[in-house]
Amino acid sequence: MAGFIAGHRSVSNVDRWGRQARCAMGALQREKHTFSHAPAGVDLVVNSTPRIRLNDPAVNVVIPDVEQRSMLEHSSAPIVATQFGGDREALVYRSLYDFVPTGATMLSGRMFNAPIREDIVHTVVKWQLLSRRAGTASTKSRAEVSYSGRKIAPQKGRGRARHGDRGAPLFRGGGRSHGPKPRDWSYPLNKNVRRNGLRSALTSKYAAGRLWIVQTAELPPDAKSQSDLVDAMVRLGFESTLVIDWDHAGERKISPHFEKAAFKLENVLAMPPNGLNCYDMLSFQHLIISLPALHKLERRFLKYTSLC
């Protein structure tokens, strides 16, 4: 019989479905090709680096000694990640009320040309929302409700269901089984994850064309505060806007008149550069940053050397 000799199955590299069997070592092997123009002592291997024969006198191989390798391994030079592009250019507008370009400025690539990582942004937003939870929900168990612990009916003889005290979770007004208790929902998140989430959100705003740079966010002297701000947003066609402003001389860190105008508006939120976060950037359609706030943001990120 073909394939069987003395009751034993013949050794073959074809399985029972007729497919070629491949071993684990076979996946690591590469087919070698020898070329006539290849130099002596070098084997050219497809999809692999050339292997050099150390006994070839024409090949000079320099191997670092123990002291040099120790210096390389214990080098104290800081490692700076470079996973961001070059600087980007953006127009600078005069103000929200006089929205005309007056020049251009360069945006730091560390902030506005970083990899857009949706997974990191999702992680940061989830961390923000859980940190904002009050965690004050509380219910009473059957031991905490104000009822007597007396058994309300005999165990047997009535032909009805068995019951204990009046505070059982089965009854209306009884205790809650496995109910919520006050707890802290916040948890620590790595600083680099938070920074990279912020950089991803800023880069996404720039790529979507919803990032605007203005010289100042302050209201003009003859403005009527809130009504003029609403008219400016309607004129620009901005449904919702997050404004990042910084006032060097003010105590509130935001231009006082603009903060007063945007205080009662639901679709406009003003905050200083230190308050910029992923959740608010995703909640509002457009992002407006004043030049003083932009410079403060860039100074904040220039000191970080572990961005990735």
From TrEMBL:
Top-rank lineage group of the source organism: Eukaryota
Pfam families for the chain: Ribosomal_L4
Keyword Ribosomal protein (UniProt): yes
SUPFAM superfamilies: Ribosomal protein L4
InterPro entries: Ribosomal_uL4 (IPR002136), Ribosomal_uL4-like (IPR013005), Ribosomal_uL4_dom_sf (IPR023574)
Keyword hit for Ribosomal protein: yes
GO terms classed as biological process: translation
Family per similarity comment: Belongs to the universal ribosomal protein uL4 family.
HAMAP family to which the protein is assigned, alphabetical: Ribosomal_uL4_B
Protein name: Large ribosomal subunit protein uL4m
Natural source organism: Erythrolobus australicus
